[in-house]
Write a structure and sequence with these properties.
Radius of gyration: 14 Å
Number of strands: 10
Oligomer: single chain
Shape: globular
Distance between the termini: 39 Å
CATH superfamily: SET domain
Structural class: mainly beta
Largest sheet: 3 strands, antiparallel
CATH topology: Beta-clip-like
Strand order of the largest sheet: 3-9-8
CATH class: Mainly Beta
Strand content: 25-35%
Number of helices: 1
Order of helices and strands: EEEEHEEEEEE
């Protein structure tokens, strides 16, 4: 397995939420960029195809494109879901950015509310926060 080029200010380590997680090695200020979610740019149809056969490290970019972070990613593909996240993703000029929802301390795990993902709607959430909704995808 080739070495991963981690985004500056991030580390990948064992997570209490699930498997590996993405952790801050420096503090991040509220509303500031943490990193860009990088990887292979694929069509949403290809994302659906890949989503049915392996661990998901795919994030939607827009109505046509997704990014598979497991192929050429920078560690951001290890960001776990939380029902009470400390960051969010936003597409800016065709790039998928991870931004701090609040101030994040050094050593804290970076988390995002996946809201809607390629995971089954029955996929259980393991974030453990008070008020956890129990599933990764938000049931509408």
């Amino acid at each position: 397995m080739p070495a991963m080029n981690l985004a500056p200010g991030l580390a990948v380590a064992k997570s209490a939420i699930h498997g590996k997680g993405c952790f801050a090695t420096v503090p991040f200020k509220r509303r500031r960029k943490i990193a860009e979610y990088t990887g292979e740019k694929i069509t949403n149809a290809e994302a659906e195809r890949r989503g049915h056969r392996r661990v998901l490290r795919i994030s939607g970019l827009d109505h046509r494109w997704s990014i598979d972070g497991s192929r050429g990613g920078n560690g951001t593909h290890y960001i776990n879901h939380s029902c009470r996240p400390n960051s969010f993703m936003q597409t800016v000029h065709g790039r998928l950015l991870v931004l701090a929802l609040r101030d994040i301390r050094r050593g804290e795990e970076i988390t995002i509310d996946y809201v809607s993902s390629l995971h089954s709607d029955r996929k259980r959430c393991t974030c453990g926060v008070p008020g956890c909704r129990g599933t990764i995808n938000k049931r509408m």
